[in-house]
Amino acid sequence: MFFNKKQRGPGETSKEKTDIPISSSGDTFTREIKDVLHESSDLVMMSPRSGVTFIYFDMLIDKTMLNRDIISQLKGEACTPEEMEENINVGNIERHLSVNPSVMSLLNGAVLVHIEGYPSVLAVNIRSGDSRSLSKPENESIVIGPQLGFNESLSTNVSLIRRYLVNPHLCNKSLKLGKQTQTTISLLYIEGIASEQMVQTVTQRISNIKIDGVLDSSLLMQLIEDNGLSIFPQMILTERPDRACSWLLNGKVVILVDGSSLVIGCPQSFVEFFQSMEDQNVKWQVASFFRILRFMAMMLSVFFTAVYVASLTFHYEIIPQPLLIPLSESRSRVPFPPIIEALLLEFIIELLREAGARLPTKVGQTMGIVGGIVIGTAAVQAGFTSNILIIIVALGALASFTTPSFMMGNVIRIVRFPIIVLAGFWGFYGIMFSFCFLLIHLLRQTSLGSPFLAPFYPVRIRDWADSVIRLPLTFTSKRPYQARPLDSEKYEGEE
Question: Is 225 exposed, middle or buried (0-12, 13-18, 19+ CB in 10 A)?
Fold first, then answer.
């Protein structure tokens, strides 16, 4: 059985079956196309004139362009492919001599024009431009700044970036990914700023992926990360063109996937997950305050409930004496130890949040508010939990929403559960063990080979000006060293 030939999957096609020369006979050519595409019901074959055959997919092409720019240009009783190419008022025309590239053009929204007696075919690309209209970013809304987000059209997303960066050095490298989907991937970077080694690394990682299909950029991000086993994302997804352009200007690489409204930026550091594009549009004092607030909220969300559990289980001495009496009265009817009480309430909060996210918008908002009030009040009155813990868990849940990155917000929601468990068994020793474990884990992480905790490890004081705090723009004249840019000067400023 070790010498059996590998069976061909249902989506694989024999090279000998498709990569054959195009027949000069129109009937033979149409029969070959039907065999390759298994006589798909949406495949249209028409002959507007004797000797000329048009083949296309019904919902992939722009029928207005088909009638106006192709069919209406048919003149005379006979014509050659050269004459047909001159008469068609479409710029994107290719000539194929074999079936395989003709089928791929057909799947990409082209009309195949076959002329009787000629062993070639014209592929006229008139792909339909149907896509969602441009709108505000749903998950990265800001007050001060552009109110425009990406959509699912790759060409539209690339054009949005080119509107911001009118630069001949902006390079667009196109790749194909997926054995079944043949998804188009665009790799954008600025020549002369982005590191050539970094661009080659990203290109090599994408080229080495062997998968049936990639339907979203979030899946591609998981496939090219340095450490796919880590819960922490090492790349950032954005739906804002201005943020993608700021990454390009800093020497980073931006990856776009056809059919996805999210764009990947790499390499990234841990602190960048807590930065918003609005931080660049407000005064540096306000931006610094917001960033510090987000980091404090992250620490609060991760450790606040664990500190409560550890204090009530092992370390009563750290609780202020005026707080002991109301705390004891609040917990007098609770039959569970603090760890069970905290995990139960955290689990209920996560249930409410997940249910609110899956329900329709208006129903979800009502469900979250009403459900939280009703369940919280009923839990206290029934003696399942204390008033103080409800306040602590609610503050932790609220703090997790301050993280601009949705993926990092999910990580914060998850990592606090094992920390609560360790705090219930070992007290503050368990909290310190958890903190040290997370710190060591983050120190070991990289993003495209760059340290994940940059600019604090390794120490790069120059990049501290735009990290946890943001100093005035005159102090951020250098590009961050993390992306290893070829040109480190952004503008003339103070050293």
Answer: buried
